[in-house]
Amino acid sequence: MKKISPFLFCSVFIFSIIYFGCSKKYQPATIPGTTNIIFTATSTNTQSVSVLNTPVLTQTYTSANTPCPSSSMTFTSTPSFAISMMPTFTRTPSSINTPTVTFTLQITSTATVTLTSTLGLAGKITFYSNRSGDYEIYTMNADGSGQTNITNNPASDNVPKWSPDGSKIIFGTKRDGNYEIYQMNADGSNSLNLTNNPFDDSSPCYSPGGDKIVFESIRDGNLEIYTMNSDGSGVIRLTNNASDDYEPVWSPDGSKIAFVSTRDGNQQIYVMDSDGNNQTRLTNSPNTDELPSWSPDGSKILFDSNRDFTFQIYVMDADGSNTVRLTTGGYWDVSPKWSPDGNEIVFASMRTACVNIFIMNADGSNQTRITSTYPADDMGPQWH
Fold first, then answer.
1. How far apart are CA 234 and CA 327, in angstroms?
2. What is the second-level CATH architecture of the domain 124-383?
3. I need a surface site. Which of 3, 56, 72, 134 has the fewest CB within 10 A?
4. What are the sequence ranges of the domains in the chain?
């Protein structure tokens, strides 16, 4: 009988260990269940991967290239797996027939990504734009979505303001030849001329109760401030001097009206009682201060000014003290208005080579563009 070669015996022994120990024990390489990937994304697209038994993951992603400062990415992944096995064996008296197997699990996944805005802003914004050729009035959601032309008139329509309950919008228009003040439903229907005057009337603003409107008019020779009932009746003149008084806005409690006047030489911000008494200057700069806007609680007033060379946005206490600059740069930032809760500010800016609408926090941080209609201009935003 032939002797078995020691080399052949060792070869058969090792093959048996690999086949029976490795193949039979480890060959079923399918991984049961659903396995997905967590992506932690940064603006440099660096990703870290871990494995969880969850079918869908929502991850917050921040990037300068997104339209909003915070966006939500939903990754829906279908992973594929590759097993790379590099067996190693340990021969000891107690485990001579028990191989130790080391392997690497390689995971690849193709994910479908949905990017949605998570600005979390409530309410609606109205503004006017010449994107259709002439100035029309638009509305949109507070995150910039749903932009809709609600006037569609060949004449210029501008300076829209919401009614306190959001059901109506008043605005200035030249559809009758000169500027008149019109009122319409929030969807643009049922437009009605409230002033019917041969002289220009503009810059209307509802009282907090919605029963009165304050506005500017040249019906008596120069720009003065008037009030009328919300149906256009009962016009009363509030200011009367040789200089221009204009851009009136009612305080949230209805007791005061802030406005702009040139009575002391340059355009400055003043305040008066709602009946026109106690007219008091609030700002005192050598340049222009304009477009005041009361905070919802009446404690502060926003405005824009070129006191620091270019028009920027400022905020001050309602008595004119503690002025703070909120925007900076070599471009114009104008027409600031508060959000209904006072936490954000909407404004118009020329930083994009045309005028577009931006939103920022009340302290000036997180400035975010919400319209983009180059080369058209979007102006005069109002938040409700």
1. 40
2. 6 Propeller (2.120)
3. 3
4. 6-117, 124-383
Q: What whole-number distance in Å separates Cα of residue 147 and Cα of residue 135?
A: 15
Question: Which tens digit of pLDDT belongs to each residue from 249-271?
Answer: 999 999 999 999 999 999 999 99
Mean pLDDT across the stretch 205-220? 97
Judge whether 278 and 272 are in contact, CB under 8 Å.
Answer: yes
Residues 27 and 6: their CA atoms lie apart, in Å, by 29
Task: Indicate the pTM of the whole model.
Answer: 0.70
**Are 323 and 329 a contacting pair, CB within 8 Å?**
no
7-16, 305-314, 326-335: the lowest-pLDDT one: 7-16
Question: In Å, how far are 7, 99, 214, 363, 369 from 90, measured between CA atoms?
Answer: 19, 6, 92, 67, 64
What's the mean pLDDT when you consider all of the chain? 78
pLDDT classification of 120: cutoffs 50, 70, 90? low
* Widest pairwise Cα distance in the chain: 132
* Cα–Cα dist 173/129, whole Å: 13
pLDDT (mean) for 334-358: 95
Residue whose entry in the numeric block shows the structure tokens 């109205």: 126
